[in-house]
Design a protein that fits this description.
The chain has helices at residues 6-27, 30-57, 69-105, 124-130, 148-154, 195-231, 240-269, 281-298, 319-335, 382-387, 394-404, 435-438, and strands at 109-113, 119-122, 163-166, 174-182, 186-193, 277-279, 304-309, 314-317, 342-350, 353-360, 408-414, 418-425, 430-431. It is of the alpha+beta class. 22% of the residues are buried.
Length: 439
């Protein structure tokens, strides 16, 4: 802390002035004497300034020059500030060194990028994963990783989930990249080799796909034979027809399950976004509504199924996948609502994008089940799902299909009143061009 010496300094100056005036007065030249003292004082100030500048030029490393009064205080203060600054710089250097050492020791790769996306720094693991070279410093990372999915992820200011891509530097290896944007647009990327996990995941997918595929033929044969036998229902001994009917029902369930598993396997394997074919929603919803009515009729439950198309916008997507997703929602609406219930299939656009809603006046779903509905085999009511031929995979399929269309599912439901399942598509999946022009 610098002492406030101003008062003492001004007192000194006044004292020297009065004393020189007095001494000068005794000799009969008061102002000449005062002027000589003032010139002497100025010379002393210039001398102190000279000492200060020489000390600063030498880097102010040694103790400051000796001086009395105000100049002494200034020198000491500067010296103390200088020392504190040097100590802090040393501490910062040590901290940075420690962070660098620990970052280097990490098994995950780390790369930092400046606001322009140029590589600033990396750790050893990142060098190994991406085979980085010194010349890459200062160059855009997107020169090294050019996969379109990564570029899309990279340009997203608020990425949520990490992305897995083929490692561009190592064939047949996978890289999981998780990006954080901070400061003025700088980015930090965390890289992990997930080849083992990906292989396990691929094995799981292959196993489910192969098992489902292998089961499909025997189930089809069983179904065929059972149907043939049941054609002679009247000739069957009593009791046996009940058993055969139950077998037919169970094989139908197995068949549905295998088909749903095969759909999920195909969706799992396909990591690309769905194509952007223009889909006329009026035609599609009408077809689904008709199928749903027929199913309702088969069950002897006359539901009212209506289509409400509120926009002429076309949806850009895969018509087959969209049909599967909306049909699943429509059949659920049918299966989980009582006879005579009204089901609506609605297509409209909004400020957030295109919305397909399937509404029903059925049993509804308690709030706490909603976040888990799209999990595979998650059922609110196991008994009802099985009794109505549910596989427990319908909404998982819907979720996958929507993911492929960069869309998501919103569920609003009130127990005993009904549910609204809404598929929300981004604006880029809408087109207002006439069907002929886009097709
Ligand atoms: P499931 O084949 O069992 O219907 P889904 O994945 O299609 O499997 O649905 C999961 C669960 O969500 C269902 O078991 C059911 O409990 C609930 N659910 C789905 N749709 C509706 C609906 N419209 N109304 C009430 N519950 C529903």
């Amino acid at each position: 802390m610098i002492r406030d010496l101003r008062k003492a300094h001004y007192r000194h100056l006044t004292g020297v002035f009065l004393l020189s005036l007095l001494v000068g007065g005794i000799f009969g030249y008061p102002w000449v004497f005062v002027s000589c003292v003032a010139i002497g004082y100025l010379i002393w100030i210039l001398y102190q300034q000279h000492k200060l500048i020489s000390w600063l030029i030498k880097g102010a490393k040694n103790s400051p020059p000796n001086a009395i009064g105000l100049w002494g205080v200034v020198f000491d203060h500067l010296y103390r500030v200088q020392k504190k600054h040097r100590r802090q710089t040393r501490q910062y250097r040590e901290t940075i060194k420690r962070i660098r050492t620990s970052t280097q020791a990490l098994s995950d790769g780390i790369i930092t990028l400046d606001e322009e996306g140029n590589i600033e720094s990396w750790n050893k693991a990142a060098v190994k994963l991406l085979k980085l070279k010194k010349v890459d410093i200062g160059h855009p990372l997107t020169n090294l990783i050019r996969e379109p999915r990564f570029l899309q992820y990279f340009n997203n200011d608020r990425p949520t989930e990490p992305i897995t891509i083929d490692n561009p530097a190592q064939p047949a290896r996978f890289l999981e990249i998780s990006m954080t944007v901070y400061g003025e647009g700088e980015r930090l990327l965390l890289l992990r080799d997930t080849t083992r996990l990906q292989k396990l995941e691929r094995m799981r997918q292959d196993f489910v796909a192969n098992a489902s595929h292998e089961l499909k033929t025997p189930i089809t044969v069983l179904r065929g034979h059972l149907e043939n036998i049941l054609d002679f229902n009247d000739d069957l001994p009593p009791g046996l027809d009940r058993a055969l009917n139950s077998m037919a029902l169970q094989t139908k369930r197995m068949n549905n399950l295998v088909e749903d598993l095969l759909i999920l396997s195909r969706l799992d394997v396909d990591t690309q976004d769905a194509p952007s074919q223009p889909v006329d929603m009026h035609t599609l919803l009408e077809q689904i509504a008709q199928d749903t009515r027929e199913l309702a009729h088969n069950n002897g439950t006359p539901h009212e199924v209506i289509v409400d198309v509120q926009t002429t916008q076309l949806l850009l997507g895969d018509v087959g996948q969209l049909r599967t997703a909306i049909s699943n929602l429509a059949y659920n609406a049918l299966r989980y609502s009582p006879e005579g219930g009204k089901i609506a299939l609605i297509w409209r656009d909004s400020s957030i994008g295109g919305l397909i809603s399937v509404t029903d006046e059925g049993m509804g779903i308690a709030q706490h089940h909603i976040p888990r509905l799209t999990e595979r085999f998650y059922r609110v009511d196991q008994g009802r799902s099985s009794a109505t031929g549910g596989t427990g995979l319908g909404l998982a399929i819907v979720k996958h299909i929507l993911n492929h269309h960069n869309a998501y599912l919103d569920v609003q439901s009130t127990p005993n009143k009904g549910s609204v399942f809404t598929c929300i598509f981004p604006k880029k999946r809408l087109s207002d061009a006439p069907l002929e022009a886009t097709g």
